[in-house]
Design a protein that fits this description.
123 residues; 9 strands; 6% helix; globular
Length: 123
C-alpha cells in the first residue's frame, strides 16, 4: 500500500501526519485498527498516557485505542479530515472532508463532529 502521508514534527503539537500528495475530499486517508476497551479498562487507561489516544467506541463509557497512523493525527477546530468507527472491522476510518494539499497537515476534530467547537478538556 502506498501511503499518502508522512510523519513530521509540528512545532506546537509534536508529531503529526502531513500529506505527501494532494488528497481529494472524500478520499480515505487511513484505516487504523483499534483495541477496544471495556468501561472498566477505559477508567484505567485514562490515568495513563493512553488517555491522549482514546476515542469513544459505541458509547462514551467504552473506548478504543487507535493503532497505526491514526493515533498521530492531531486535533483542529477547522479539520480537513474526519473519523468514523467501523464496528464490523474494528477499525477507525479517517477520510478527507475537504481537499488537502501536498505538505498540509492532516487534522481531525477530536470532538467527533467536524463543526463541534466544544472545548477539549486537556488542551
Amino acid at each position: 500500500m502506498i501511503l499518502n502521508f508522512e510523519i513530521k514534527k509540528n512545532v506546537k503539537k509534536g508529531r503529526g501526519l502531513f500529506a505527501t500528495k494532494d488528497i481529494e475530499k472524500g478520499e480515505i486517508i487511513e484505516k487504523s485498527p483499534v483495541v477496544v476497551l471495556s468501561p472498566k479498562e477505559r477508567l484505567h487507561a485514562e490515568k495513563t498516557i493512553l488517555n491522549y489516544y482514546i476515542y469513544p467506541w459505541k458509547s462514551l463509557k467504552s473506548a478504543s485505542v487507535v493503532l497505526g497512523y491514526g493515533s498521530i493525527i492531531n486535533h483542529s477546530f477547522n479539520p480537513n479530515a474526519d473519523w468514523k468507527q467501523s464496528f464490523k472491522s474494528n477499525t477507525m476510518i479517517f477520510r478527507a472532508v475537504k481537499d488537502i494539499k501536498k505538505g498540509e497537515e492532516i487534522t481531525v476534530n477530536y470532538n467527533g463532529e467536524v463543526d463541534d467547537l466544544s472545548p477539549i478538556d486537556w488542551f
